[in-house]
């Protein structure tokens, strides 16, 4: 019932559209060209599809400055998300400051209508993903130029897969643990070396570690992923993480040479087309 109501509302959004999307163009070009969010449906933000194949209606923008955060790389126009994601970032910024963290530097969320991005991410398509830098926020407002050029600092020892204790300390540990503590967070992606440091420092309180998953990159930031909100029938969640803290054989594999060996060259993957996304994403893209 809810799904049919949403589908009908999506169809109504495009009734006044003058032109339709070009099906021959990669979906990343179509969604990358959208500069404003689609209207909410019906009366609320709606997630369509999965984190790596979907879109978002009714996105809201994270203010570029707030009490305890500053948004980075503004030229990308990726400061949009589901209202629950924006609310979680605001909460994390507030509670992390109370823990002693100077403030969040917030990287990419999603594009105004979600969807595939022109560069950088395969996910971040439905407004439930956010990148949080592991560089503490300076005690001043950054200029637009600084937000574009300021580097995100790797937490690793030079040329290694393990963290540099001079860079990744107790405050970083507390920040990631704080983010993982929220029930709406499904996963947090970090570099395997950061996961190793979290495992070593966690002590007896280890339940939150199951959410923290090792993945390539993520040495200068961590990636928060929310689970699908309730009453979102078009949203597709990942399977839950495996049981356990993830600090054993799985992590040992990530820290071995095997996952980092270059793969034999092959044809580049074909970019997603609009037809590869859920059918409702056409209406989200074309909505006026």
Descriptive notes:
By secondary structure, the chain is of the alpha+beta class. Helix content is 26%, strand content 15%. Strand 4 (65-66) and strand 5 (69-71) form a beta hairpin. Helix 1 runs parallel beside helix 8 (280-286) and helix 3 packs antiparallel against helix 5 (170-180). The chain starts with a helix and ends with a helix.
Tertiary shape: globular
Largest sheet: 4 strands, mixed
Please estimate the helix content. Answer: 25-40%
Question: How many beta-strand runs?
Answer: 11
Sheet with most strands: strand arrangement: 8-11-9-10
Can you name the CATH architecture of one domain? Answer: 2-Layer Sandwich
CATH class of one domain: Alpha Beta
| Class from secondary-structure proportions | alpha+beta
SSE succession: HHEEEEEEHEEHHEHEEHH
Instruction: Report the end-to-end length measured between terminal Cα atoms.
Output: 25 Å
> Could you please say which CATH topology of one domain applies here?
Muramoyl-pentapeptide Carboxypeptidase, domain 2
Average predicted confidence as pLDDT: 92
Q: Please indicate the percent range of residues in DSSP E strands (runs of 2 or more).
A: 5-15%
Low-confidence stretches: 14-18
Number of helices: 8
Alpha carbon gyration radius: 19 Å
